[in-house]
Amino acid sequence: MTTVIDIDVRGTQHCETTALGVLLRHQGLDLSEPMLFGLGSGLSFIYWDSKNMGFPFLGGRVKPFDLTRNLATTLGLELLVQETTSPRRAWENVVAPIDAGHPVGLQLDSYHLDYFGSKVHFGGHVVAMYGYDDRDAYLVDTGQQGGAVSTSLASLAEARAARGPMAAKHRSFTLTAPGNPPSPQDRIVPAITACADAFLNPPIANLGHRGIEKAGKLVRTWLQRTDAPQRDLPQAALLMEKAGTGGALFRNLYRDFLAECSQQLDSGHLRTGHRLYTEAATLWTEVAALITKAGESGDAQSLVQAGTILRDLSRIEREAMQALRCLGSVSPHPNQS
Q: Which CATH architecture is the domain 3-30+78-176 placed in?
């Protein structure tokens, strides 16, 4: 027996927005990936290091699944989330909506998926599932991972049952659009200002613009932080550029979101934010290149340069978010063109 739903597959860049795009297009709501990311207030920053970690991690977005929750709230979507410790119940939670003709989002550990090229544990990976047969599950992942892909039912069960950082208990979810959903254009300003407020007022120094400033100080010590700099530093840079971030630690996606918003709303604050995030995106890619160079060559000066740019990035992104937060106090005019 095979149950497969007719879906619109696109080779997008980030796992959670890829899955959200599949689910929402099936509901008749077709938004670009940058718009999904921005309306989900997805941009953030975290410098994450602890005793049980082999090497520090730089993250550029909100926690896994927060983007989905934010987007559902912003667009007035019904978000049904199911979690369980029972593998049998977890499978029933997925089969029921698919048999009824609706794709399902899954959060799982990408390490166990048959098609995944990079075998690294990541419990915050999100895919859309649109079909199954007696042997395989049919999924949609990022363009980098192949778009429409399949994995064995056994590997899917392992991925869903995995435990560890960011993992969820067999989490599955569906999205349902209301009969008269709000216009995405009407929700742009609240989504941007919510993102800006969180970025400008982080509860701890590892987050937001304060986190970027902290990273600028600590990145200079990274050659001493590891016994294998030739492995760990290029890997950290790769995660910033290639691991589903859309490049520049998600700043390319947010830059493109702001550009799309600028076509719909006439606002100097919005244009300022877009200009600054265009600059920031270029600098993040430069930081990643310097971290790679330091790891490969052992040149500490490259990390000093990266730290200096990160300090500048903390200021640039703070100024960008301060401008964007001002959108909440004025009424941008819809562009007439």
A: Alpha-Beta Complex (3.90)
